[in-house]
Amino acid sequence: MPRLRRPAVLPGSTLLLLVALASCAKKGAPTGGPPDIEPPRLVASAPDSGAAGVPRDAVLALTFSEGMDPRSTADAISIAPRVDIRHRRWSGRSVAIVLAETLRAGQTYTLFLGSGARDRHGNPLAGGATVAFSTADTMPGGVLDGELVARGFTAAGTYLWCYDAAGGRAPDSTARDFDAIGVADRDGRFRVVGLPVPGRYRLWVFADLNGNRSFEPQSDILAPVDTVFALAPGAPIARGFSVTVLNPRSPGRVRGAVLDSLGIERGVLIVMAVAADDSLRQVSAVVDDQRHYELPLPAGVWRVRAWRDLDRSRTWQRDSEPASAARPVEVAPASEIGDVDLVLERAPGGP
Length: 351
Hints:
The protein is mainly β. It is built from one helix and 24 strands. The longest helix has 7 residues, at 70-76. The radius of gyration is 26 Å and the shape is elongated. The N and C termini lie far apart (73 Å).
């Protein structure tokens, strides 16, 4: 397989999607050496990515940079358009993929590997991988070459499902009925290749956050990209675009400093946020030695206050413990809010 190259992403328009929400293995240490923390990579395939004229009864194969965990890696291998896999047979660092049916004539396929694949020491694949090939005499030249900007989740391993816009289909994660697929790498870059030209295509972003390869609205993200990509013989490649996807369940982060000129050293400085709509929803953090703090907060309006907890009870004694005024802060999902500084004032009956 030719060396895998990261596509260049040129400046372009950003498509912002405010979307509805549509295991960590322990690293082992190789015997006699330091812990293995290097992510595995796909280094070769049969057929090569971009190959045409692939026999309809071909046995596919993938080779990795190191020994892989057979179960997690086998589970991460799929092919689109959907073809069931009968066997996955391992030999060293390679796995042969025996299909349950003959490939269709004149069809482009993408063998893809999700980020759930892991090496023998638990390190996940570096962002997933795709191998596109065709049983036709030539490989279609259409390409979507872009970047996924993930807000509140990890871009690596996120799927970009591609559909022929003329079909008007809604995605079905269990059917794997997309016409082509891309997988974002660690930098969020992706390529969907082998698209017939001319053609008009739609993308859907699927972030499989719970890792079960099926869309679960309570945990995953499934979002359409509004743009229709028109590919023509004179312009078969669409590049230089980015897709920004927001995880609405991701907390925002509020940061700031506590300014204290009162000269009181005992106790501990605490910052607490209280939800404006429910005083029982509270998030607190101890201020660090530089008097900085950080609070992860779900989306909503919060009131943020600092106080010196003289009795270390974690409860503000308003008559005796110095505190700041409460600052209202509106937090959006996956937002970063800085410079929320709080100034301690002397308590009415305190030191």
